[in-house]
Amino acid sequence: MSELSAIDVNVDMGESFGRWSLGDDAALMPYISSANIACGFHAGDPGSMRRTVAAAVEHGLQIGVHVALPDLLGFGRRQMSVAAGDLTDYCTYQIGALAAFAQAEGGSLAHVKPHGALYAMASKDRELAEAIARSVAEFDADLTLLLLRSDVAPAVEKHGVRLVTEAFPDLAYDPDGSLVIEAVKQAWDPQEVAARAVRAARERRIAANDGTDIELDAPTICLHGDAPNAADVVRAVKAGLEDAGVSVTPLARILAG
Q1: DSSP assigned state of 31
Q2: 74: number of CA atoms within 13 Å, CB side?
Q3: pLDDT at res. 1
């Protein structure tokens, strides 16, 4: 695979709830290109959804729906047994809610990205991936679905939805290519994350935790806004990418060629 001259940097955002505040979205937005906005199932509430969408529109960010399992207590990072039909409805509920705020604030949706445990489950389980894709297709089949693996692409694409895989410079990988999910996001060295992001773009590879390389086909990378040093990380990543000749560009623009 050829090296990339542009890559999308997406960050999970809008994850505060009521009087509980998480992350500093405003400090991150100038350095990224896409926002995955929580919709109330794992985090977020109507007020945070509106504020985050409005800020994303102001900064010219691509807006994505961060769909999740109904798990506020566990921040969506606990696996649950869920029927495919129920999952489709969970996603439709969340997509519809964020779409309303996007319309109200003069923006529009461009992608859907599952959160936490649902992301890991749907990246491996074709039935769950298809359940999410069905929801996306019923709303707008032009929305891109982000997942970790392309193995489930046939289940997604049968509904006319495009699957895009992404890379995670601020998470560890097992040698089989699966992510090591942190129950509470830990601080990573910003320069290490930046180096991993640059390598993901230029070499299309990322190191697993045993030192072996995993090949990537990822036009977008994810960083975590709930990391204790998230602002330092996103600044370092953008600087590192630009120094390497890679522009930070919204995913839709990259996919459009």
Answers
A1: G
A2: 15
A3: 64
CA distance 138 to 99: 13
Contacting residues for 137 by C-beta, under 8 A, at least 6 apart: 159, 160, 161
Question: Could you tell me the CA-to-CA distances from 8 to 48, 62, 168, 200, 253 in Å, in that order?
Answer: 23, 9, 12, 12, 9
b/e sequence 28-66, b meaning 16+ C-beta within 10 Å: bbebbbbbbbbbbbbbbbeebbbbbbbbbbebebbbbbb
Which residue shows structure tokens 């709303």? 139
User: 107 CB contacts (<8 Å, ≥6 apart)?
Assistant: 53, 56, 57, 63
Q: 3-class SS at 35?
A: strand
Collapsed DSSP state (helix, strand, coil) of residue 129 = helix
CB atoms within 10 A of CB 91: 28
What would the pLDDT profile of 154-170 be if each residue is shown by its tens digit?
A: 999 999 999 999 999 99
Distances (CA, A) of 96 to 31, 67, 104: 28, 11, 12
Bridging pattern class, strands 6-13 and 247-248: parallel
For 26-81, write each residue's pLDDT tens digit.
999 999 999 999 999 999 999 999 999 999 999 999 999 999 999 999 999 999 99
Residue matched to tokens 């074709």: 126
Task: Give dist(CA 54, CA 61) in Å, integer.
Answer: 10
Rounded to whole angstroms, the Cα distance separating 37 from 113 reads 9
Q: Which amino acid is at 22?
A: L
Domain boundaries, the chain: 6-255
With beta carbons less than 8 A apart as the criterion, state whether 171 and 200 touch. no
Under 8 Å CB-to-CB from 90, ≥6 apart: which residues?
A: 41, 67, 69, 70, 82
CATH number of 6-255: 3.20.20.370
CA-CA distance, 152 to 9, in Å (whole number)?
A: 23
